[in-house]
Each structure stands twice: as C-alpha cells, then as structure tokens.
C-alpha cells in the first residue's frame, strides 16, 4: 500500500481513541476515496491498453511475403513500386498501406467444358440429337459436331506488368480466362473438319494455344505463359462406330500402301543389287579378257623365238602336251582298230557307268 | 497536468482521424472516382474529364462534396445461348461474351448511376442487336469452314465489337472484345447432322479402300519399272565395259601379227584344250599320235 492509502487508516484509529466518532460521515468519506482509487487504477489500465493497441495498430501493416509469392503494395490505394519479393516488409497500417500477395510460381488451371459436358455436369451422352440447352458440343468447319474439353495450365510471367495486370486489371480474371479458352476452342473447331479435330489433336491444340495468346496476351495485354493444354476430343457417341470403322479402314489402307511401299523398296533394292552384280560381272569379264590377252601376248612373245628356231619340233612338243592333258581329262576314248572299236575308260570311271555294266 | 497531456493527445489523434475521414478519401488502384460539388461534377481542367485516378485526395465534407467510386477493372459479361439466322436463313445458336471497362466515369455515372448490373443489362440488349445484325450478313459457310480463306469468324467478332462500341459510345464504357463463346445448331438439325456424319464416313471408307489399292498397285508398278531400268542400265554398262576391254586388248594383237602362223597354232591349241577339258568323249584313229606308238612303234618314233 502507498503512503496516501495508508494515511486515512491512521487518522481513523486516532479519532476513534480521542473523539466521539460520527460513523456515517466516516463511511461516506471512505467510500468516495475507494471509488476514486478504483477509477484511477482503471484509467491506468485503460491507458496501458490504449498504448498497446496503438502499437499493435502501427505494427499491423508489417507483412511477411511467403516464399513463391510476390506482393503489391498500395499506399492510399495507389500502387507503390517496386513489387515486394518474399520476406518481411514494413508497411503502414490500413487504410494507409495495403499489401496484396500473389503466388507467382503457382501452376494455375482453367477448363473449358462448354463443348463437352451436359448441364448436369456429365460426360457426353448418346442421343439422337443434341439439345442446345443441355448438351455440350462444338461445330466443326464441315458443319458437323464434336465434343471438346480443354484444360489449360498456365503461370504468370514474372514481370511487374503481369502481376499487376493479373491482380488489378480484371474484375474476375478466372471468368475472363474461361471465356477466352471457350472462344479459342470454338474458333479452332470451326476451322477444321470433325475428322481432323478427332484425329489430329496436336494441330487443334496449337490453334487453341495461338488463339489464347492472341485474346489474352495481345488484346487484353495480360502476359500469361501457357504451360500445357490437355484436350479430350470425341465425335458424338452415336456416330463414333462409323468414325472408328473409317479409322480402321484408313489404317488398313495405309497398311496396304506401306506394305506396297516396302515391297517397292525391296524390288528396287534387289534390282540395284542385281545391277551391281551385272556391272561387276561385266567388269570382271573385261578385266579377265584384257589380262588373258595380255598374258597370251606375253606368252606368244616368249615362245616365238623357240618356234622360229624349229617350228616342227615346237609344234610337236606342244601338241603332245595338249594331247596328254586332253586324254587325261577325257571320260571315254574310242579308237578304231580294225573292225571292232575299242573303248578306253578313264582312270576314275563314274560309278553310274559301272552299275550299268553290272546290272544285266 | 501529465494525465491531461495523455488524454489530450489521444483525443487529438481521434479528432484528426475523424477529420481525415470527413475531409479526405482515397481511390484504390482498381477504381475510378468522380467528385461532385453541390451535385455538380468537378472537371479536371487539364484532362477535361471528371475521372479521378488512384491515390489520396482531400474534399469538403458532405453536403458540399460527394465522391462516387466505380470498379475500373475489365468486366466479363456473357449472355444466353440464343438462335439467330445467317444471311441464307439458316438458324444457328450463338452465345457471345464481351469484355469492357469504364472509360469515362462521369458518363457512366450519368447513364447508369454507377450501377454495374444496370450497365450489364443495357449492354445485353446492345450486344444481342449487334449479334443478330452482323451474323445476318454472313453465310453459314463463313461462320464454319475448313478453308481458312473463307471462314470469317474473327471478322464477325470484330464487326460485332465495332457495332457495340458505336452503340455504347455515350455510355462511358470501352468495349475491349466481343467474342463467340459457343456455337450450336437447333436440335432437329443435329439429328440430320448425325446421319450425314455416318453417311460421309461410309462413303469415305469405300473411297479410301479403293485409293489404297490403287496406290499400292502404282507403287509396285513403278518399282518394277524402275528395277527394269536399273537392270537395263547395268547390262548396258557391262557391255560397254566389255567393249572397252576388247578395244584395249587390240594393242596386244599387234604382237600376234608378228607371226600369224604361230599365233593361229597357239589359238587352236588353246581352243582344243579348252573344249575338251571336262567330260569329253574322244573317238580317235589309232594312227593319231601318240596312239600310233601302240601300232607302229618304229614309224611313230621316226615321225
């Protein structure tokens, strides 16, 4: 207790000892003092609370920008550059400063299913006709119909302009991107046949992507990065068997052409091989002829002196050598000696001939 | 006195805050505002417009000044899927969307009292009118076509935008784009479309099978032709090579001319040996040398 608080108690005891007390006055006095003290204490608490609240208010603008996020700072509602990177940033409390955080690295996704789903959110249904208010489909360039569903994954290009535009430029950026994607799907579909849309989805995908870039990036100046575009494309369920039969027939026809092409390649390759054989055969014959004539010419030149010295003996010798060779190689030799012809068999008679002689 | 200072400071802060609330306003980055003095809009002398951009501003308290703020962002509006007719009278269902923003806040305020939903409703009738009028000038084949030169879908959208922009020029809004969000056909037409799609495929099956057969035959025939050409060329080349060899061998024949008798003898000998090389059967006179050694040894030795 303070001295001030203690003092009235001391006075009270002295008065009780020396004077006749007036109880009512004393009680009133004590009450008013107690009230005054209580009020003073309350004011102290209120003051401390107010100071604490004031400090809390002043610090309320301090913001932690999360990893993978960037933030835009508005001072009195006006954008204050630069864009804040992740980390702790001081800002004055609202309404002086306002900080808007944007996840920049996040992969965002938008789906266009206006050409796919029914109003009951179901996949395409088999029916004799399409109800415009129920079935989702697109028109194709040949006046037919297909179902197309496109899911676009995109991210924001990391520039101040993109982040500002994404956050501040559109009342509802998701709705806008969905409309842009629907528009791109219908444009791409309207410029190609149903078969083309059904079978060449990469070309359809490119056209949708190009249109998205035109509408979003160029017309509305919102530079987004389209990371991927996934498509589901099918013809109406009722005509699918006809399309599948056509595709099968097309594949078979292509297979037939491929086989014919392979056969043609094989025929040409064989012909080229044969041609090489013929050409090399011609070359071999030519070389052989040339070398043979050359060899004969050389042999002639070598033998000519011997012939010229004694032609008869030279001829006799060569005839004998030749006869020896011929007679050695001959299978059967007949020579006429008187009335009966004689047969000389070769030294290694053929087995067939032996059997023939033994058979009878 | 100390207690009074604190109280006074807090009181002063509260008064200042209240004063700021009464005497100032701020326009957010996504907004545009106009300020009126006794109900009359305040026009900026430099820009000639009443639009007030983002930031902090002072004002006199009500009823002297009043501030109206509007959403300055691009709005995306879309409307119902409804039937319209092409120039040849074919029915087609079209759903369009438009993106737009406030370009003149004062005009927008005067036209719609700043009410975005009212603006959207007004825009709907304008867009519908433009849609019917523009699509009515184009054929169905200009709306959907596989030929990029004939399709006019982008042109139709541009024309609709032009028309809507013209009609809304005094509304204080700027049309950024009018685009087709959906195209369709009346229910009865889609039945015929299904039948046509089936018939088309069947016709294409017959055609593609015939084309495949024809192409396969052509490929084989072309290959045969080319193979014959290659072989003929190779045979010609071989003949040329042989001819060249024979021509080249002529130089050696000069050597044989030095003794034609010997040359003939040697050629005959070679021919005899070559022709009787294998599987030959000989019928000889016993007087043929050297067999004459067997019958007339003395005579043969003299010979």
Our count of domains of chain B comes out at 3
As for the CATH topology of the domain at 108-235 in chain A, it is Tetrahydropterin Synthase, Chain A
Class computed from helices, strands and strand pairing of chain B: alpha+beta
Mean pLDDT of chain B: 89
- Shape annotation of chain B: elongated
- CATH architecture descriptor text of the domain at 108-235 in chain A: 2-Layer Sandwich
- Helix and strand string of chain B, N-terminal first? HEEEEEEEEHHHHEHHEHH
Offer a concise description of the structure.
Chain A has 360 residues and is α+β, with helices and mostly antiparallel strands. Chain A is built from 9 helices and 11 strands.
Written overview of the protein:
The complex is a heterodimer of chains A (360) and B (303). Chain A is α+β, with helices and mostly antiparallel strands and 360 residues long. In chain A, 56% of the residues lie in helices and 20% in strands. Chain A contains 9 helices and 11 strands. In chain A, strands 6, 7, 8 and 9 form a 4-stranded antiparallel sheet that branches. A 3-stranded antiparallel sheet of chain A has the order 3-2-5, covered by helices on one side. A two-stranded antiparallel sheet of chain A has the order 1-4. Helix content of chain B is 54%, strand content 20%. Chain B has 9 helices and 10 strands. In chain B, strands 6, 7, 8 and 9 form a 4-stranded antiparallel sheet that branches. In chain B, strands 3-2-5 form a 3-stranded antiparallel sheet, covered by helices on one side. The longest helix of chain B has 70 residues, at 187-256. Chain B is elongated and about 175 Å long. The mean pLDDT of chain B is 89.
Topology:
The complex is a heterodimer of chains A (360) and B (303).
Chain A: H1 3-18, H2 23-59, E1 63-65, E2 69-75, E3 78-84, E4 87-89, E5 97-103, E6 108-115, E7 138-139, E8 145-156, H3 160-169, H4 173-190, H5 194-199, H6 201-219, E9 224-234, H7 240-309, H8 311-329, E10 332-337, E11 340-345, H9 351-358
Antiparallel strand pairs in A: 1-4, 2-3, 2-5, 6-8, 7-8, 8-9, 10-11
Helix pairs in contact in A: 4-6, 7-8
Chain B: H1 2-23, E1 24-27, E2 31-37, E3 40-41, E4 55-58, E5 65-71, E6 75-78, E7 82-85, E8 91-102, H2 105-112, H3 116-135, H4 140-143, H5 153-167, E9 173-184, H6 187-256, H7 260-275, E10 281-284, H8 292-295, H9 297-302
Antiparallel strand pairs in B: 1-4, 2-3, 2-5, 6-8, 7-8, 8-9
Helix pairs in contact in B: 3-5
